[in-house]
Amino acid sequence: MDAFEYNPNPGRVVFGSGTLQKLPEEITRLQVKAPLVLSTPQQVSQAESVKNVLKGQVAGIFSEATMHTPTHITEKALEYARAQGADSVISIGGGSTIGLGKAISIRTGLPHICIPTTYAGSEMTPILGETADGLKKTRSDPKILPGTVIYDVDLTMTLPAAMSATSGVNAIAHAVEALYARNTNPIINMMAIEGTRALASALPEIVENPSSQSARSKALYGAWLCGTCLGSVGMSIHHKLCHTLGGSFNLPHAETHTAVLPHAISYNAPNIPEAIKQLADALPDSNGDAIHGLNVLLEKLKVKRGLKDFGMKEEDIDKAADIAVSNPYWNPRAIERAPIRELIRRVWAGEPAK
Ligand code: NAD
């Protein structure tokens, strides 16, 4: 056994079907009375259900959460929170809404209850990405980690099949990079394998039958485990590339993760034989070949694989390669421009990973 360090994140997790009904108990537990409920404009009805479950006892609903957590929206939400006398925040939604909850909580110290409705995993991390003047900056602070997370499978039933597929692969990406993180440990390793296994079997079922409660439940369980991996150990080339591509060319978050994943893992494969073996074992159709397993999974999920389909231009390939190599970071394989450019070209074109 290699030496390791392990720091469990202290958040409380409530998981199940219908668990939104447990929200009043969680509010009592935190000894708060006036939570501000956050959502996107698309999820106002779920924010309303939160208010109903709390019998109207909320400071208000702020439904302007949006991608990349722009600071001007955070300022507006803070102003509303102060005016309404909010003593806590509840975010119901995906990474965008949870990001706003984190941004408010870290500025005010208000307790944050998260009710995630996608598989992105932000609820399990002490990480916050915020955008100001078109620039996205990411920071990590233990105080950013939400104190309570309520996973209610029922709230994920409305996540459209295509979004479920890419959001789920986004989660798998956290686990795969955790397998070879420099600071990984046996607990995170187990979570990464179990999370990948759960999502890789549940996602194709969800695409075939989005109303399968058992598949949804397994996927959300996997998302929790994968989010814990993201919140606990360092990420490498895959996450850095997605950050560069998403931020520089305004590409959609989960779809970018999905297109990049097999290519990023294929790039690292020669240097991570143990992780590749573990990944192959966790993917149902791998036949002992992890990259093949990822390619088959994406085929089954019927997802778009080319970043050109999301508006990235061919001339952006060189720009992306320059940014990726100009910002050195730890990765199991050295970041070299020529193979990185070829990786980005293949992702842009939507060719399967080799
Ligand atoms: P999202 O939160 O942007 O949601 C996408 C859309 O789906 C929104 O319109 C939302 O309202 C809708 N939606 C969400 N759940 C739904 C449901 N159950 N039914 C119907 N519609 C639903 O998407 P996301 O992929 O969850 O989050 C992406 C953002 O989160 C990015 O900005 C990313 O950087 C951030 N993120 C941060 C971390 C972190 O640790 N800080 C981790 C993962 C993602």
Description:
The protein is built from 13 helices and 8 strands. It has helices at residues 23-30, 44-53, 71-84, 95-108, 161-179, 186-208, 213-232, 237-249, 253-268, 273-282, 290-301, 316-326, 337-349, and strands at 12-16, 35-38, 60-62, 88-93, 112-116, 127-132, 135-140, 148-152. The protein has a 6-stranded parallel beta sheet with strand order 1-8-5-4-2-3, with helices on both faces. Strands 6-7 form a two-stranded antiparallel sheet. Helix 5 runs parallel beside helix 7, helix 9 packs across helix 13 and helix 12 (316-326) crosses helix 13. The model has no long low-confidence stretch (mean pLDDT 96). Nicotinamide-adenine-dinucleotide (NAD) binds next to helix 4, strand 6, helix 5 and helix 9. Nicotinamide-adenine-dinucleotide (NAD) binds at residues 40, 42-43, 67-68, 93-97, 99, 117-118, 120-122, 125, 127-129, 155-156, 158-159, 163, 167, 230, 253-254.
